[in-house]
Amino acid sequence: MELWGLDLSTRQIENATKFLSDNHYKANLFNAPMEQNPGIPENYFDIVYSIYAIGWTVDIQTTFHLISSYLKKDGIFIFSWDHPFMHCVEANKNTLLFSGSYFEEKPFTFKKNVNPPANGNHLDLDKENGVSLTLYHRRLSDYINALAKAGFAVERVVEETDRKILDSECEFSSRYYSACKAKYFPQSIVFKAQKL
Ligand SMILES: C[S@@+](CC[C@H](N)C(=O)[O-])C[C@H]1O[C@@H](n2cnc3c(N)ncnc32)[C@H](O)[C@@H]1O
Description:
This protein is of the alpha/beta class. The chain has a single domain (33-195), classed as 3-Layer(aba) Sandwich (Rossmann fold). The protein is 22% helix and 30% strand. It contains 5 helices and 10 strands. It has helices at residues 10-22, 60-70, 140-149, 163-167, 179-182, and strands spanning 4-7, 28-31, 45-50, 71-82, 89-92, 95-98, 108-112, 131-135, 152-158, 188-195. It has a 4-stranded mixed β-sheet. Strand 3, helix 2 (60-70) and strand 4 form a beta-alpha-beta unit. Helix 2 crosses helix 3 (140-149). The chain is globular. The two termini are 23 Å apart. S-adenosylmethionine binds at residues 6-9, 12, 33-35, 51-53, 56-57.
């Protein structure tokens, strides 16, 4: 089995290199943006997967075209990201509000903790110490249509909250990720697509 990967962050590449070598894996890792091919072979891979990174792309169509080019025919692409509702629905005590438009096309900028707190909620905003980051609003259809245009057939989309949270009594929290939001809509979304 061969393992290849990329990340824009030098620190992430260093961490991954150490983790993989500590566990006796060899990998070809590139410190590069996903919107360019840094030297990854084409028509070569059975599976491409991305955990919580695709939403950062500044050009989803180019990124999906590149991923498609790396895969063999019938190869599988799996990725996860925040559910599109996460950018426009807010929890306010016991009420969920559409606080922004699902159709918003302009990117939004916010401040994010560079050193995540112990609770792991690194998307909780840190207006004083955070670094500025920009994200694009994307609808469910934006992902599906970009996949189709890049030559993929969507095989499965997962929008779920686990049973334990659905059955729990949740306490109100204004956190970005919270159980009381998750009881009403999925916080993440996972796509599985096949290259045609
Ligand atoms: C939430 S982290 C997930 C990382 C990894 N998948 C994991 O589970 O630990 C998102 C990653 O996307 C990377 N990233 C953001 N924009 C990128 C881009 N345009 N090209 C490549 N990587 C990018 C960040 O550096 C970060 O490491």
